[in-house]
Design a protein that fits this description.
By secondary structure, this protein is mainly α. The protein has helices at about 5-15, 15-30, 35-50, 50-60, 70-90, 95-115, 115-120. The protein is built from seven helices and no strands. It is globular, with a radius of gyration of 15 Å.
């Protein structure tokens, strides 16, 4: 594996079952009211504009999920959104407010990453 294949490391980490299990256990310990599916959909809507179910219904011929087909830039932003969302949760922001804020962050970060020559070098 060469360093230019860095996108593999990020996307593989986000898809890794152990990562998902770790995040789930961490949330259960530190945030007992956490509902993973609805939070996952909140992040999906803020970045992709649709839930995982909506994406599957639009792409019945594809195996996998919306995140399996995300670009490197989207995966980077998604990772950032997960961190920011946990801060918003700890601050007590309701889901509607978090969605609005996360969507604004996603738009801003995607604008700064798309076309970035440094990101293209990673690919």
């Amino acid at each position: 594996m060469k360093s230019k294949d860095g996108d593999f490391f990020i996307s593989d980490w986000l898809r890794n079952r152990n990562t998902v299990e770790f995040l789930s256990i961490w949330e259960e310990l530190h945030n007992p009211n956490f509902i993973y599916a609805s939070e996952g959909d909140l992040l999906n809507v803020s970045l992709f504009g649709k839930t995982a179910k909506q994406w599957r219904e639009e792409h019945p011929d594809l195996n996998g999920n919306i995140r399996d087909f995300a670009t490197l830039e989207q995966l980077i932003v998604l990772s950032n959104l997960e961190s920011v969302n946990s801060i918003f949760i700890s601050q007590g922001l309701d889901q509607k407010e978090r969605l609005k804020n996360l969507n604004n962050i996603a738009i801003s970060q995607m604008k700064s990453l798309v076309g970035n020559k440094l990101i293209k070098k990673i690919n």
